[in-house]
Amino acid sequence: MKVNKADIVISAVSPAQYPKTGLPEIALAGRSNVGKSSFINTLINRKGLARTSGKPGKTQTLNYYIIEDSFYFVDVPGYGYAKVSKTERAKWGQMLETYFTQREPLKAALSIVDLRHPPTEDDVQMYEFLKYHSIPVIVVATKADKIPRGKWNKHIKIVKDKLNLREEDDFVLFSSETGEGKEQAWSLIESYIKS
Q1: Rounded to the nearest 10 degrees, how much is the dihedral formed by the CA atoms of 56, 124, 14, 34?
Q2: Where residue 94 falls among pLDDT bands split at 50, 70, 90?
Q3: What's the burial of 132, exposed, middle or buried (CB within 10 Å: 0-12/13-18/19+)?
Q4: CB atoms < 10 A from the CB of 152, how many?
């Protein structure tokens, strides 16, 4: 997809604030600092639309980005960051559960993991949660450029095994540095938007 138009529309914390347009939504879930903002920025060829931060745990709302007036990327709060208080975490958990279980226009979730490390317990829980609620999942393994190409297969296998990736779910190897996986990610996203 060639993106000429992309904007952040709202940072929502409750269903009352979700956009009422009925356009399809693609959620991005992943732990803090896994590269969700860089993923969005790479896909839409814009450097700073989704703010990348050296400070993990920055996204604390559901950030809605409208793309080409045809669908939304919804960046959900990163999980697994220790410096966030238990009450904050519980609030996020509630917000995510409400969003994922009740949001009609949600077409699929991108489960974003770091290729360099085995998925964490939080990653596994998130994946299981999405499967439990029958939400189609595309697993995106970021930071592929940080690993020698010859070791990709080994790392991919570790990620798939740890998540117990189901056959029906797609897997994308991705790098915001090199653009690896960008076309594949777009074609999968478009297939869900159109379904």
Answers
A1: 30
A2: confident
A3: exposed
A4: 15
